[in-house]
Design brief:
5 helices, endonuclease, DNA-binding, eight-stranded mixed beta sheet, DNA damage, 23% helix, deoxyribonuclease V activity, globular, archaeoglobus fulgidus dsm 4304 fold, alpha+beta
Length: 236
DNA sequence: GCGACAG
DNA sequence: ATCTTGTCGC
């Protein structure tokens, strides 16, 4: 069984009825990295999803020069991409942005926004990486662990890993690898734009992560889930 | 020591 | 992420 120090706890019935990993929220970088190392043992990158009817999106913005975190959570009809629910939450920012520790800065706000949703998403596309992270614990993976919900990381820039050139054709993708592991995919979401980085968050594999992401793409570089959440989080 | 570095 | 207008191009 995985090691679970006192500051990391396994909870069989979390906020949404699923098994979740609860833990304290340190403010110091060293402690955050230690929590990440323990959390890694609980990540599931094998498909374990319900039928996806409601597709969620989460994105975070900031105000007051960063002192206030503005989090947006949205739910779209997975079939029609119609927006069925939205929520906006403002919470005081607790941590600065530190590469590799983004989740400790953004998740508190994300949780506050998710709590306000009337419709619980079956799968959430998060703005940021999933396991495509130095310790395999990007914001999407971390959010999946603490909510118990399936998540996918959709990032606009690379954090770690390397990859071949991506053909300039919509839907083309190449593997993103790091230290001998496949940690995600680099996807050309539309011709003529910079590719996006897709990686499993929690309770999903790379193939399905790519499939669901592509199902939410229309004519833009980013999937509708993150586009809708993004405008909510940035527009005052 | 040097370079890299999600949002 | 955020500070910020117009502008080049399909």
């Amino acid at each position: 069984m995985p090691e679970t120090p006192s500051d990391v706890r396994v909870v069989e019935a979390g906020p949404y009825g699923h098994r979740v990993i609860d833990h304290d929220w340190p403010h110091e970088a060293r402690a955050c990295r230690n929590v990440q190392k323990t959390l890694t043992t609980h990540v599931n990158t094998v498909d374990d999803l319900p039928p996806v009817r409601w597709l969620g999106g989460v994105d975070i913005g900031f105000e007051d020069g960063g002192n206030t975190t503005r989090a947006a959570a949205v739910v779209l009809n997975a079939q029609t991409l119609e927006v069925v629910d939205t929520a906006l939450a403002r919470v005081p920012t607790r941590m600065p942005y530190i590469p590799g520790l983004l989740s400790f800065r953004e998740i508190p706000g994300a949780l506050a926004a998710l709590e306000q949703l009337a419709t619980l998403p079956d799968l959430i596309l998060v703005d940021g990486h999933g396991i495509a992270h130095p310790r395999r614990l990007g914001v999407a993976t971390h959010l999946g662990l603490v909510t118990g919900l399936p998540t996918i990381g959709v990032a606009k820039k690379r954090l770690t890993g390397s990859h071949a050139e991506v053909p300039d054709k919509r839907g083309a993708w190449v593997e993103l690898t790091d230290r001998g592991e496949t940690i995600g995919a680099v996807l050309r979401s539309r011709v003529g734009v910079k590719p996006i980085f897709i990686s499993p968050g929690h309770r999903i594999g790379l193939a399905s992560a790519l499939s669901f992401t592509m199902s939410a793409l229309t004519r833009y570089r980013l999937p509708e889930t993150t586009r809708v959440a993004d405008k909510l989080a940035s527009n005052r």
